[in-house]
Design brief:
With about 450 residues, the chain is α+β, with helices and mostly antiparallel strands. The chain has helices at about 1-10, 75-95, 115-125, 170-175, 315-330, 345-350, 365-370, 400-405; strands at about 35-40, 45-55, 65-70, 130-140, 150-160, 165-170, 180-185, 190-200, 205-210, 230-235, 245-260, 265-270, 285, 290-300, 310-315, 335, 340, 355-360, 375, 380, 385-390, 395, 415-420, 425-430, 430-435. A hairpin with a 5-residue loop joins strand 13 and strand 14 (about 290-300). The longest helix has 22 residues, at about 75-95. Belongs to the peptidase S1C family.
Amino acid sequence: MAISAYALISTSTLFRPSPFSKGRLPPPPPLSKSLSLSLHKTINYNCIVCSLNHHNSSDSLSANKFVCTKSLSSSPFLDSVLLLCASVALSFSLFFSDADSASAFVVTTPRKLQSDELATVRLFQDNTPSVVYITNLAVKQDAFTLDVLEVPQGSGSGFVWDKQGHIVTNYHVIRGASDLRVTLADQSTYDARVVGFDQDKDVAVLRVDAPKDKLRPIPIGISADLLVGQKVYAIGNPFGLDHTLTTGVISGLRREISSAATGRPIQDVIQTDAAINPGNSGGPLLDSSGSLIGINTAIYSPSGASSGVGFSIPVDTVGGIVDQLVQFGKVTRPILGIKFAPDQSVEQLGVSGVLVLDAPANGPAGKAGLQSTKRDSYGRLILGDIITSVNGKKVTNGSDLYRILDQCKVGDEVTVEVLRGDHKEKIPVLLEPKPDES
């Protein structure tokens, strides 16, 4: 800034040299201890000449005396003085101004974006206030001081469901937490309590006591009419980096993954190549209109980082679960009340179906008379019933059984066909609700 100001003063006050007889200034007199400044004016030009006079000089001018000699009218001289004052004022304004020296003279043109870029920017700006950052806190005891500390053990994403402060996320984001904290888009943090969760579908609902003007519910869309190839957008907090946007397309539909908590299959999952990393879990998957179509829940990656294969629970599945959790605090899902063997074990027997390992007497299957696998008095294994169909729908593995039960309601009576020994039997079973989870 100082160099710019000095250059401006120099160019503004520059005068052409006086036309002396030989075209150059006369040599200065010898140095002395006194300084005299003389201003000489010729016919058309002004120049500043510094002369140093000796004490013993015969010049009649005394030391340190300012001499101004003016030949013609004072108008050109006055103009020069005004120009000098204006230059000094401008220089001081540059020195004391807050503007950067470079930006003061550079005019930036507005950035031009394509229409699709503008749409993406607008989508991110409109939906970011609906996405929250969730911190999972656990109580730990110091091994040396025995002090009880509350330390973060994980983090994830979530989104605002309604104005009442309900936050939707994945169950595995909050699993094992002693306390939960939710950070909104404006960086305000609130303690959250668990309203309810569904381990089988990896969905949880929290609630925060935040002002309603800070809560912006996310627009809810439909996942039934999605198509492979359409654009999707994921907003989340990967690796703790808040509010990150990634884009991609729907790579596949009607995928099936297993719940991380119970192993129960989740059907009709959306597959996308939008980058989903640790910390994105629980965040929203949006379509091009900015509507919610799924919850980012899992990735397929040997290394744990994004590999271009991410999975989201469809919003049509999430909507019904959230409504039950908000209203009842739990999901009333029907069960048969059995424990069954892994699918590989049944395949080794050369049969198709679900092998019943245990059917407690107080459960629906036990009350109906299904038989469990047991050992006789000699230690030999006696296989239990093998379920081959439910309500006429073929059952080849555990996923088929879960899929059929998801279409039923508590209190429905279903006909279970089993292979018992070398013959088949049909047994009516009255479905009961799943016991409450602690």
